[in-house]
Amino acid sequence: MDEGLLTQNEFRLLDEAEQFLKRTRFALHIAAGRAQNRLLFDLQAAVAKMMGFHDPDAKKQIEAFMKQVYRMTLRIGEFNDMLLQNFEETVLKDPSDATVTQINSRWQITNNHLELIHPNGFERHPSALLEAFVLLAQNPELKGLRASTTRQMYTARHLIDDAFRNDLVNISYFMELMRYPSKLPEILRRMRYYGILSRYIPEFGPIMGLMQHDLFHIYTVDAHTLQLIRNITRFYTGTVEQDYPVVTRLTQRLPKIELLYLAALFHDIAKGRGGDHSELGAIDAYNFCKHHRLSEYDARLVSWLVNNHLLMSMTAQRKDISDPDELKAFAEIVGDQRRLDYLLCLTVADITATNPELWTSWRATLLRQLYHGTTDFLTLGLDSLPGRSAYIEETKADALALVRPSIRSPAAAFWDQWSQEYFVSHSSDELAWHLETLIDAKPDETIIAIAANQTATDVGSTQVLVSTPNRAHLFADLTACFSDLGLSVLDAKLHTSEAGRSIDIFIVQHESTCQPVTDADDQERLLRGLEQAALGQYINQAGMRRTPRAHKYFNLPAKVMIRPDLEGRRTLIELVAPDRAGLSTTVGRVFAEFGLDLSTAKIATLGERVEDVFYVTDSHGDNLYDADFIDRLKERLEHELNALSGALLDAES
Question: Is the dihedral of CA 637, 641, 644, 646 positive or negative?
């Protein structure tokens, strides 16, 4: 302070942050019972309580504490950067050797850093608080702000009030930033760092440092938002075209890239308020866009994107998008091609900014399939595509063109065994593969096959066919085999013929690497294990698999929802539960116990939890209508899943 490198107030704020982090570290050692410097999930609740954070909701208590940890850490980083830069400018370098270039009456460039000319420049010209970032965007040679200007900006932030936000000059400055996509991520990061972004957009303040207490979201909400914006810039500039070819080309063709950036900025801005953050954020986005002089159409588009930013990923992961009825329902919500293009770009940027491990080739395949299928509906018109029966006949004809001529004649007799659901669930390529593989199968024969064209790394998964006489517990035994071999089931479609024969199709990948099963030895082990499972001779080894420590901490009770599907032909069972080995097997055994036929399974693992969707019917192929039966099924599923995760023991203790 004596050297003028820190003011008295800055020292006080820095000392406050240091003392908070020291107390946190001491509490962490007490909670761990040893010298522990990692604030692990299972220690955060105890440390938060010792640090004086109290809330009836344990999750909110932890998130409030971690938010303060984040903010104090950020404060130390801010002052550290300013102190080091100040030290360099005043001690290491001779001020008389500085190279100075004046930009205008308010700003000059000193040694490649932007500097405010007058000591009270922000008080005289408050708009300079935003002008600084426009100049940084326009002059890529600038390395940042001078230390003296940074200090002035910290002390002048209070000037950003309602009058400031309503000033047309400031509105123009902010929208001007959108004209520099390649610089926008860095500019917004600086605005957040200096506290300008949360002042100009007050709704951004509450999400600063807001952490979500799970293994799915690895960033704070504000950091995730800026990472999403960075991803959009990477698409727009083409630096990741090799990894994201479709979305890169789409982003570059969008008529107004600034609309995508605004949707990204507001997509999670209402998190932590309570209520639906998508709906609340959509209102904020619309008001912001109108305030910033966007047209009604553009404001509504940004608002729609915020409100529906989860729609595409949820549809791809939880709906049977091979069913044209599901595709049509999604297309009706989207409405037009422009919305679809913007939504795909936002969805991919959002997924890759949430957790790098979430983006897999399989998820990319699902989104491409949904995008292209929806494009067909929107291009031809929602009512112009063939009905269900006509669609099935077209798919059959395409499949026949792909198979050997010798099996085209007996194909009709083979197909007569299967319901319409079988044909709408598979492409013509898949139907052709099934024909080639099963046309000569004996009634009591078990056939296991791996699709030769479904093991490429660009697909990211392996398609496995199991056809055998159907029996109770078949699904449970097959999924037990996959689990024991370290394979994740991403999708399953199960069909039973009138004669009682099954065709079960599984999409799987290695759990640890998210890669397909390409090794010959691995494929051989898989085929042997599935044959034993299909015959009811497989010995489940799930008890030998260990649940990761972090996953054990998240043992919240399972939630099961049961309702009819879109067309009322099947019953949809949605479950959210902690991720545990043997979960699909447990679900399959409950289904067998209740005499249910499973037709489709959509499996999604999100950090420490799974969000799975199952389409079932009763043993006669009908929807579930009996309310008492549904209640008993729901209770049984939740009981078994809670017993598997340990939540049942926690509730009883």
Answer: negative
Q: For 254-293, write each residue's pLDDT tens digit.
A: 999 999 999 999 999 999 888 899 999 999 999 999 999 9
Closest residue by Cα to residue 324 from 249, 380, 285: 380
Whether residues 186 and 309 fall in one domain = no
Q: Which two tokens stand for residue 117?
A: 């000319």
Residues 255 and 140 placed together within one structural domain of the fold: no
For residues 23 and 130, state if they share a domain: yes
User: In this predicted structure, what is the pLDDT of residue 652?
Assistant: 44
**Distance from C-alpha of 516 to C-alpha of 285, rounded to nearest angstrom:** 41
- Give residue 592's pLDDT band: very low, low, confident or very high (50, 70, 90): very high
165 in any annotated domain: yes
* Contact of 284 with 270, CB cutoff 8 Å: yes
pTM for this prediction:
0.83
pLDDT for residue 453: 58
What are the tens digits of pLDDT across the range 170-199? 999 999 999 999 999 999 999 999 999 999
Look at the chain and count its residues. 653
Whole-angstrom distance, CA of residue 174 vs CA of residue 167:
11
Q: How confident is the model at residue 551 (pLDDT cuts 50, 70, 90)?
A: low
CA angle 102/107/108 to nearest 5° reads 40
3-state secondary structure 596-637: CEEEEEECCEECCEEEEEEEEECCCCCCCCCHHHHHHHHHHH
Q: Is the pLDDT score of 629 beyond 90?
A: yes
Cα separation of 82 and 601, whole Å?
54
Q: Of the candidates 260, 302, 257, 292, which has an alpha carbon nearest to the alpha carbon of residue 170?
A: 292
- Nearest alpha-carbon partner for 362 in 431, 314, 326, 316: 316
Beta strands per DSSP E along 473-517: 487-496, 501-510
**Longest Cα pair distance anywhere in the chain, in angstroms?**
95
Count the domains in the chain: 3
Cα gap 353→206, rounded to integer Å: 20
pLDDT for 653 equals: 43
